[in-house]
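Tokens as discussed.
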């Protein structure tokens, strides 16, 4: 018996190959496409006074995905003792330009050595399209070892408020 194999016509192979190549290019293009920046600016600096715990220049880094937003707080506050990862309950309250406030909360933080600066976040919150949020008029509260540290801004954030799409 003679073995016969059935091969698709050349034009069919070309058509399938072209579709696969186009699909690969489309997926590659998506992988390298820049992420949409839904909030502007994505980073701002504000000075906080945290009383006995110090204070100073703090960087707020914002992201947005629809109505969900996050802010990471890189503070100038130093840890009085070693802090375990995810051990700081934090609430960042930002003032809305239209009145009221929006709170960003969470318990995310990296492990921090004594004397190192404290970073918390990402803290999560809910925003609406067009929200303009500013640190001035809000607070940063962190609970460390059962002690609430309240930080008040000493000036408005720079370069300006976070404006969400």
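Sequence:
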């Amino acid at each position: 018996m003679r073995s016969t194999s059935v091969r698709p016509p050349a034009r069919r192979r070309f058509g399938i190959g072209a579709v696969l190549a186009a699909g690969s290019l489309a997926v590659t293009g998506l992988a390298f496409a820049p992420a949409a920046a839904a909030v502007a600016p994505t980073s701002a600096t504000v000075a906080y006074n945290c009383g006995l715990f110090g204070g100073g220049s703090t960087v707020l880094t914002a992201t947005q995905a629809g109505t969900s937003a996050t802010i990471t707080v890189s503070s100038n506050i130093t840890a009085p003792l070693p802090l375990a990862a995810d051990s700081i309950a934090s609430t960042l309250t930002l003032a809305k330009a239209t009145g009221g406030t929006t709170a960003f909360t969470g318990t995310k933080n990296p492990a921090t050595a004594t004397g190192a600066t404290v970073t918390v976040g990402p803290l999560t919150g809910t925003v609406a399209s067009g929200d303009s949020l500013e640190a001035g008029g809000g607070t940063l509260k962190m609970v460390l070892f059962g002690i609430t540290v309240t930080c008040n801004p000493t000036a408005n954030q720079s370069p300006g408020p976070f404006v969400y799409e």
